[in-house]
Amino acid sequence: MPYITGKNYDAKKSLVTFFLVLCSVSFIACVQKQSTTPSSPKFTRLLDSADNLYANNRARTLHLLDSAKTATKNSDVVDVFRYYSFLYYINYRGKKNPGKAMLYADSMLSTIESTHNEKKYAKLYGVASFAKGDALFINNKFQAAYQLYYKGNLIGKNYVDNCTIGDYSYRMGMIMYRQEHFALAASHFKQSFIENASCGVGFLSYYRGQELLDNAALSYNKAGIRDSAELYFKNALSYINASARKYPEKSEVIEAARGVVYGNLADLYLASKEFNKAENLLKKSIQINLKKGYENKDAQLTELKLARLYADLYNTKALIALLKNIRAQLDTLKNSEAEADWNHLMAEYYQNEKEPEKAITYLFKYEAIKDSLTTATIKIKESNVNQQFKDFENQSTINTLKSDNQTQHTYLIITLAFALMALAIVFLVLYNWRRSKQNVALLSELNRTVNEQKRQLETSLLELEYSSKEKDRILRAVSHDLRNPIGGIASLTTLLLVEQGLDNEQIELLKLIQETADNSLELINEILEATGVLTSSIITRQYVDINMLLSHSVDLLRFKAAEKNQKIMLEVLDKPEELYISREKIWRVLSNLISNAIKFSPQGSVIGVKLSVEDDKIKIAVKDQGIGIPADIKDQVFNMFTEAKRPGTAGEKSFGLGLSISKQITESHNGEIWFESTPGEGTTFYVRLKKLMA
Questions:
Q1: CB atoms within 10 A of CB 354
Q2: Whole-model pTM?
Q3: How many CB atoms lie within 10 A of CB 442?
Q4: Looking at domain 542-690, what is its CATH homologous superfamily?
Q5: What would the mean pLDDT of 350-362 be, rounded to a whole number?
Q6: What are the pLDDT digits (tens) for 31-63?
Q7: Which Pfam families match (predicted)?
Q8: CA angle, corner 83, sides to 297 and 103, nearest 5?
Q9: CATH architecture, range 419-537
Q10: CA distances from 574 to 5, 156, 227, 607, 610 (A)
Q11: Helix, strand or coil, per DSSP, at residue 638
Q12: Does CATH place domain 11-293+373-391 in 1.25.40.10?
């Protein structure tokens, strides 16, 4: 059985080829699909009968194999391979004739090699390599065995067969376990479990999976990694239980596997001194595997674990009764490892019973058996497996190079080509270096030209800035000079309108003059405001309560909104906030935005004004229900003297300066101003200022 079991485990029996040991020679069913030639029906029928009879009637099985021998000449490669593998199994499994098992393994290899088509039968080729490696291993020919294992691994890699590579990982895990590299063994078993997924869906793959999980758990337990060991033991049991119902015809084999895991899990609880758990699991394992046809040898080893527990707990009565039962079993079913442990426990028992003569007798027997068991283990430990596999890999590389002169020739040509390319690259580097010197001189000249143009542009910019300031000065002077006469015209018109005796036409003309004068004064005021913002570089700031400033602005404009039957809904902050700003200029921004909302909103609409906090900033939102801003003029809204100006909903004039002034004031406070608008639905203007800007 391919499990690691027992206190002093004899790993030789665990290196049995998995496909052979698992369900006698039925392992070959997993690769029969490779056959493309028809098999001999008689030969196949005889092998199937032998396969089914082997467990209960080995004599009849051998007779059927003798009958099948005469049909091998006319049989398919897979059937011939199956025939030799069956004979290999019989000689290997019982260890009756390891030398003969090796001969049959050679026949398995030659059957595939004679086809000269190893690629077609790659899986069988890997199985044969591992089979011969196992036969060499039990004969303590470790280096030769390792070479066959490496060959099987190479076959798996060359033909991208992860299932075959998984068999190699499995054997590496077994070897590492024997050498007491337990953590490394666990990693190999886990890797093999992953690779086993490539072996297809079926009982063989399922059975191997639970075995690998159990072996990984045992390795972790030996390495002292208890938590991982317990996890993998439980995973093994879950894995067994998950698919057990799929294979009712294999229920006894599955139950035996479950019993093995119980016994191994008990080791973990023994180490952690959880004796009740350990005893229950040991008894469950023994009850399962003492049945005929089950894992009787594993049951013997598990009984010895239970006996060890009784000895440690000084339960002398239970101990001697159990040892007597084990003795009767060992007389029928030989088990050298169990024999060694039994003698050791008997020696301890008689020593505790103050009978030193009997104790010494059993101790001598224990030492004699133990010496024979440890000889092979010592040889394995002395071999450097990793180095040997590295040597095999190096030798494989050397052989490949020797057998492929064309490859060497190709490498030489490639090397020469690279040399020529290198020379060409050197030539190009030198050529480009010379060109680069010329380019540097040209770039230097261009740089001087660019610098001269930059200087000229800076001069032009200064002149333009001077011209702009001069324009603002003239504009401010003209506006100021026009303000008084136009203001006088507006005042005189107002006085004339209150005079009596004017006819309707005269009144209409006077109102037109008054409206024109008022609009002109408003334009002059905005021009003076705009030029004042542009020319003023110093802003007088103070701490201002933004709630109060906004409330004051809204209150002043409620009367203007009432003229159009509009309402202004104000929402201020719950907690007052102070901003370090120019009260007058920010008031101007707020008034401009609210005035615009009134101007461009229809009669009876609602204008929303809201304050909110965004991290370390205050956001002011003014939302109207007006005509909105079309997409084609959105990028012109904040320009001075913009072409985007439009009359209000009641015909109010718009000069296009208010938003430009608001943007300049906001940006001079390191703030932001923007808007969101949908034509026909309204516009929302936003202003964002830092809380404290001192």
A1: 7
A2: 0.52
A3: 10
A4: Histidine kinase-like ATPase, C-terminal domain (3.30.565.10)
A5: 90
A6: 444 444 445 555 555 555 555 545 554 555 565
A7: HATPase_c (PF02518), HisKA (PF00512)
A8: 75
A9: Orthogonal Bundle (1.10)
A10: 76, 75, 58, 20, 12
A11: coil
A12: yes
